[in-house]
Amino acid sequence: MNNSQRIPAKVVAAVIATGLLSFCGVIVETAMNIAFPKLMKEFNITTNIVQWITSIYLLVVAIIVPLSALLKTNFKTKKLFIAAASLFIIGIVCDGIAPNFIVILLGRAIQGIGTGISLPLMFNIIMEQVPNSKLGMMMGFGNLITGVAPAIGPSLGGLIVTNWGWRVIFFCLLPPLAIAMVLGIWGIEQKSTIRKVKIDLFSLVLIAITFAGLVYGFSNVSSQSFISFQVAGAILVGLVAITLLIKHSFKLQNPILDFKLFKNLRFSGHVLIFFLVQMCSLGFAFLLPNYIQIVNNNSALTAGLIVMPAGLAGAIFAPIGGKILDKFGPKKPILFGASLMAVAIFTFVFIATKMSNMLIMLVYIFYMLGMGMMMGTVMTSALASLTDKEQTQGNGILNTLQQFAGSMGTSLAAMIVAMSQSEKVSSEATAIGSQHAFMLLACFVVIIIGVSIKVVPKKLN
Predict the structure, then answer these.
(1) Which residues form a coiled coil (predicted)?
(2) Residues 157 and 75 in one domain
């Protein structure tokens, strides 16, 4: 680790370049949700089919991210970045000119490969090349880049779809992708040693089956009977595959995912915090726009504009949380952030049956301030609990779980609301279902605070 107090310009450029790829990935994901009704009409498809625009992307990302440690060991960082950026651009163009829905899914899968490669690169570069005294701030800055995307994605999507059509969503991302490519080629430098490690194909197959089963199963929770192959069957297949993967990985010297890291209780505790925060955040990303549109009878564009200030606040507070970590250690920003989250979630529990748009916006800002403050800090503290050699594997685990937590959080929230809407999709049923979902998130935040008190140290190692 570089001990200089100054962050080199090339390191900043490398972080921005890799962050922009992840930013574009989230923008497409959140903006395209607004375009679902248009796509359903244009391609004559149903709701459960159109949702595969998101599901196929998350599935591919979840399969590729676990390979990050292996890819980083076998290939130069710059080559990986160029491959990721090129694939993402190919996927974007593919979707922009798609003549049918199958081509759109193909483009989204290609984008998922690009994002899956690039997402861990940003945090690997930060952990390797940023001095310890600036580590928290830079991790927060990295989270800021990706954190802005969910804030502006829905409103940007609504604006573009309303005025120019859904294809423009893809083409408008070409300029930032071009900027990312230039910055990456200039700024990314090789710091780690390259050594050829053979890819274990059996592990790769098990990873694919694991996430295919789990993502597919949880994505169908709200639309299919739980006792069906589409839900319980798929989840069971995923659980069997991950059990075999864990047993198999313990036999390998260089596993794709090193599950031995979970023997480190401090790291395991941070992983649990990280996972539950992601579930809460993606649950909110589904619940609040849904509530604004169905209960308060507003448009999708209005819903996007109402949640946008909170997203921006969360993104801005990410580097602030990092600065607090650099000065005072990780425990204070994590507990303070979790406390803000708890205040917001319990407020939503008590007022869920009758919330105005203004009240939703204000309470959600509190939640996102807390979430933004702690996310980068949790990652930094988690990786600091590992040795330098283990950090790439730890980063891969965190980024892998981030994708799965997003799918699971959205699915559980949708399932709980759908249970209340079983007889009729009414504003009253949606409000009650949302309240029940907020109660589940309240349980999660209590666990987050309890685990944080137990495992988060006052100072980084």
Answers:
(1) none
(2) yes
